[in-house]
Design goal:
The protein is of the alpha+beta class. It has one domain: Fumarylacetoacetate hydrolase, domain 2 (Alpha-Beta Complex), CATH 3.90.850.10. It has 6 helices and 18 strands. The strands form 4 sheets. Strands 3, 4, 5, 8, 9, 11, 12 and 15 form an 8-stranded mixed beta sheet that branches. A 5-stranded mixed beta sheet has the order 6-18-17-13-14, with no helix packed on it. A 3-stranded antiparallel beta sheet has the order 10-7-16. InterPro entries: Fumarylacetoacetase-like_C, Fumarylacetoacetase_C_sf.
């Protein structure tokens, strides 16, 4: 058997303090998982169950990269997040067993074409064009659980050109990491290589060409993305 076109290379992200790579299978994102961010988006977090959207694996961008300002938007926004890397697959995982499926943690930036997302919301359409575009998933080096444990508290911040834009604490998540893993696994089988972006605190705002965006999470360091001009 031969492929009729060349297979796509496996996307991957760095592993902290190692030359090894973590292969990326799928990227799940939790929508509005911090109450203050839900409110700034005009929603009441106390009334809604968790929901998810996805990004393609090849949307991954490494720490330190310069990316072009994306097309078809006038409102590119940052969303700093904690990322969970799944190392052991499973389905119908209980909350009590969820953390046993985690390989490690990293820092992410869920870049969003907010104007396209807002238009889709008004029309009741999927969010893909606002969320799942090229270079939309900035993922920093992953830290194995053996080194960092399971972060459930600690500051998460986003700075743009040195100015603080977002600030929250991991303890403010509406749905905890064990809950998120369990809920996802009851809808579809999780597999090794899946990443989960766990939501962003309040303070999302626009990025323009020339901006330097830094996301920090206590205990995991920071990642940097530079926004270049449009292609």
């Amino acid at each position: 058997m031969a492929y009729v076109i060349d297979p796509t290379p496996t996307p991957s992200v760095a592993v902290a303090d190692s030359t090894d790579r973590f292969p990326v299978r799928r990227i799940f994102c939790v929508g509005r998982n911090y109450a203050a961010h839900a409110r700034e988006m005009g929603r009441d977090p106390d009334r809604e169950p968790p929901f998810f959207f996805t990004k393609p694996a090849d949307a991954v961008v490494m720490d330190g990269a310069t990316i072009p300002y994306p097309p078809e938007t006038q409102d590119l926004q940052h969303e700093g997040e904690l990322v969970v890397a799944i190392g052991v697959g499973g389905r119908n995982i209980s909350e009590a067993d969820s953390l046993g499926h985690v390989w490690g943690y990293g820092i992410g930036n869920d870049l969003t074409r907010r104007d396209l997302q807002s238009a889709a919301k008004k029309l009741g359409r999927p969010w893909d064009w606002g969320k799942a575009f090229d270079n939309s998933a900035v993922i920093g080096p992953l830290h194995p659980v053996e080194q960092v444990g399971h972060p459930d508290q600690g500051a998460i911040r986003v700075l743009v050109n040195g100015d603080l834009r977002q600030e929250g604490d991991l303890s403010e998540m509406i749905w905890t990491i064990p809950e998120v893993i369990s809920i996802l696994s009851h809808s579809m089988s999780l597999q090794p290589g899946d990443l989960i972006m766990t939501g962003t605190p309040a303070g999302v705002s626009a990025l323009v060409a020339g901006d330097t965006c830094v996301v920090q999470v206590d205990g995991l360091g920071e990642i940097t993305t530079i926004i270049g001009p449009a292609d």
